Predict the 3D structure of the following.
Amino acid sequence: MSKSHPHYLKPGLPAPRPARDGLDDPFWSALREERLLLQRCGACQRWQWGPEWICHGCHSFDMGYQAVEPVGRIFSFERVWHPVHRALVDQGPYIVVLVEVPAADNVRLVGNLLGDPRQPVPIGASVSGIFEHHSDADPPYTLLQWQLT
Amino acid sequence: MAGVGQTTYYKHGQSPHAESRLTLEAILNACADAGIAPEEIDGFSSYSNDRNDGPRMAAALGCRELRFSNMFWGGGGGGAAGAIQNAAAAIAGGLADCVVAYRGLAQGQFGRFGRGAEVHQVSGEAAHTTPFGLMSAAQMFAMKAMRFMHDHNVERSALRAIALASYEHAQTNPLAIMNGRPLTPEKYDDSRWIVEPFRLFDCCQENDGAAAIVLVSAERARDLPHPPCYVLGATSGGHYRAGAPVHNTPDYASSHFKTVARRLYDMARIEPADVDVLQSYENFTGGVLMAVVEHGFCEPDEVNEFFKVENFLAPSGRLPLNTSGGNLAECYMHGLGLTIEAIRQIRGDSPNAVPRADVSMMIAGPMVTPVSSCVFGSQATL
């Protein structure tokens, strides 16, 4: 665990692994370098998330990844109380947020809202991204978390 | 709808019989109810990747010929009306004469839906949700209900009314797991959070059991033991990019019925006001909330007034809802129990029969994709 950014959830949850077909490799690789890359169609410039091989708007296969600043708005949230995984038995409540990214056509990302897990969560509030490194994992990975701005 | 069959329902892990045997029992019970020999079944229609596939069931039952073997894509109970849709379409299209729509599900034998998978790594869509502690069905859907409730100032009493109605109806249903375990408003309010906005009693059960429904042509149904119950309409699907991954469907705060419901009313040639009794799949009460709105029974901003328990109680409420106890209080048989209850209402043998129920609706699997809905009618509706 990184000392500067303790992990939001207790250890032991399944780790994200890039898809075997390579579809989301650039996303996961960039997070390691503290950058957020999302899919953007090279033909019609539309942003798209979650990842697909094809642009749903123009059917181009030219789906590149482009950097976007990790800032957004809380679109919805949930506060989880009942643990459904062994790793979370002693966790207590935690907050999952769905964040829309206005700079990328309002595509949405799932993450946790850092801070007091019992805090009120204002839908529509601005949030900024925090890179949560899991460098001791094998292989290492990074999650994008959020905090109110 | 020629006949319906259910096994004894169990809490998860308590069935003395294997899932496959439960499935066979339910099919035999439905055949007995219909007065049809099991060998006559020539079509099998199921959903949610049921493990008890049609070819295997047909061989086990010694069916004379297999003519239709069909799986409705998608997870959850989105196919609890979709399996009816496909079975009815097969008969109407001349592909088969006698089709059983069924679901066998013993969560105690194959893993509970309410638990996250104990694995080291996840990839694909799950990689973008599971590491944040979002992995169970309740967690997948809570944010949709939360946003809908935020947009329309929905009070928690609306969700409570759904749970109270289901539990009240279960008290007169001998098959219901929660028979003899009534729910009060205080008990609901005091129950623990599972994931906000859902408390314990907003969530379906996890069970072992099986259910089956036998369909034949309308012509043949007239000669069978029960009063005929006709499929007036059955539709399925989802709105534009309803299945977009990682919570990116454009119309997010939805149960996914906006287009499906419109087509259902067109097909059945009815309006919401014609519906005498409603079964609406409760994975979570928030799904019922949005599904009832999207089927046109009230406006989104009227929810707090409309969702009162007295409106939902049989026999005389404005819109009797989940009259067997449903997934919350009868059994979570992936919604097929609700489909059976919708049929019983037309036949008049529901444990909470609504007098002169001529039009009976069933809504399946809110918030998944595809979802499905169907409407049954009595002879008077033809």
Remarks:
- The domain at 3-110+204-381 of chain B is CATH 3.40.47.10 (Peroxisomal Thiolase; Chain A, domain 1).
- The two ends of chain B are 14 Å apart (CA to CA).
- Chain B touches chain A through 45 residues (CB under 8 Å).
- The longest strand of chain B covers residues 207-215.
